[in-house]
Design a protein that fits this description.
alpha/beta, Lyase, Ornithine Decarboxylase, Chain A, domain 1, TIM Barrel, 8-stranded parallel barrel, 12 helices, 20 strands, about 30% helix
Length: about 425
């Protein structure tokens, strides 16, 4: 579903004009489409329905309670990586029996909190962590399900800072270590070691890395069963790509066509942890132009009221986001190639930047953009995932509000922060 589209010369989210939202809530503002979120969740559900599949939305991609509640009401489980994310998932109505807890550095208090809530499963990333969970579970009189997160040393060909399945990454347990754990599984009598987990990073634009990883896992599962361990679950993580440029990319059915035969061969139930695919293109960040300026060297800047503290992906990952005026007579290209800039009549080459005192506070450089002036609105597309959830109050900038659109209605799902919010909890 393309929830954000231009009708005439103005941008809509579903059946609501972006202008109408901004007139009530101001900028910067994150805007999400409820029906796009549901459409993408259901697309995943349909693609993988040939096996028993539990979809666990990755809370780190967007942790807003209203977003999580939409998915909880739809039947989604949740993938959490901290006690705080677990709290959010439960607060939003998530069923603890459909929550998996991942992450390399689970603290004892987080493990205890998860045990108290009888979550579905821990994804274990080291021997030390397994020992902690086993000890704490024994003390609590619990027997939690555990999946070993395997690091298969597979290069998923994604950004160096978002790849997680290579041997030099901090994530997971290598195959040799996993074999040792399996042989010594009797030592961990307070847990039910019944799953294997592999997550390679994000976004992944081909199915091949999943196939190569699962073939390694297939052999490991057989070894587990030979040692008397009944592996019931295979968790393939997330990482499914979205289009940031408008180009066509593979869809869930394309992943499923290659992944499902291997899952069936494993005779396992499937767990998956999508985040970006569901929420990435279901949200935009709207910003207002504060100033435009041109240097004596001819370099042009569009300075807007959103900044790297609101959306850090371009500064952190050199990530490409399409950016276009909310109101314009110039049509946004169907596909925008970041390496090829076409400057048409009425457009100019600009850097789109924010007010934060860092040179990295830049959303785009040498970007072809219709000419804009002070007060104009810009839409930064594909901002639903790893947008607000990675935001901060750096430079003591209050974080933006978040808005949810459903058909021809919208509501604020997070209030804009105030200066008072910035110092709440501090003392002098």
């Amino acid at each position: 579903m393309n929830a954000f589209e231009y009708r005439g010369k103005t941008l809509f989210c579903e059946d609501v004009r972006i202008d109408d939202i901004v007139s009530q809530v101001g900028t910067p503002v994150y805007i999400y489409s409820k029906n796009a979120i549901l459409a993408r969740y259901r697309e995943l559900e349909t693609a993988f329905r040939d096996v028993d599949t539990t979809i666990c939305f990755s809370v780190k991609s967007n942790s807003n309670l209203s977003i999580c509640k939409i998915l909880a009401d739809e039947g989604s489980g949740f993938d959490v990586v901290s006690g705080g994310e677990l709290f959010r998932a439960i607060k939003a109505g998530g069923d603890p029996s459909r929550i998996v807890f991942a992450g390399v550095g689970k603290m004892d208090r987080e493990i205890k909190y998860a045990l108290e809530n009888d979550i579905f499963m821990f994804n274990v990333e080291s021997v030390a962590e397994l020992e902690h969970i086993n000890k704490l579970a024994g003390e609590a009189g619990k027997a939690p399900k555990v999946a070993l997160r395997i690091n298969p040393d597979i290069d998923a060909k994604t950004h160096a800072k978002t790849t997680t399945g290579k041997k030099e990454n901090k994530f997971g347990i290598d195959l040799t270590e996993a074999e040792k754990i399996i042989k010594q599984s009797a030592r961990y009598s307070n847990v039910d070691l019944c799953g294997l987990h592999v997550h390679l990073g994000s976004p992944i634009y081909t199915v091949d890395p999943y196939v190569r990883a699962l073939r390694k896992i297939l052999a490991l599962i057989q070894n587990c069963r030979n040692e008397g361990l009944d592996i019931e679950y295979i968790n393939i993580g997330g990482g499914y790509c979205i289009s940031y440029t408008g180009e066509k990319v593979i869809r869930p059915k394309d992943y499923a066509s290659k992944i499902l035969p291997l899952v069936k061969e494993m005779q396992c139930n499937l767990i998956m942890e999508p985040g970006r695919f569901i929420i990435g293109n279901s949200g935009v960040l709207i910003s207002q132009v504060i100033y435009t300026k041109e240097t004596i060297h001819g370099k042009k800047f569009v300075i807007c009221d959103a900044a790297m503290n609101d959306l850090i992906r371009p500064a952190l990952y050199d990530a490409f986001h399409r950016i276009w005026p909310v109101n314009t007579s110039i049509q946004m290209p169907e596909v925008e190639n970041p390496d090829k800039t076409a400057v048409k009549k009425g457009m100019e080459l600009v850097d789109i930047v924010g007010p934060v005192c860092e040179s990295s506070d830049t959303f785009a450089t040498y970007r072809a953009l219709p000419k804009v002036k002070e007060g104009d609105l810009l839409s930064i597309f594909s901002a639903g995932a790893y947008g607000f959830t990675m935001s901060s109050s750096y430079n003591s900038r209050p974080r933006p509000c978040e808005v949810l659109v459903d058909g021809d209605q919208f509501r604020i799902i997070r209030k804009r922060e105030t200066y008072e919010d910035l110092v709440r909890g501090e003392d002098v």
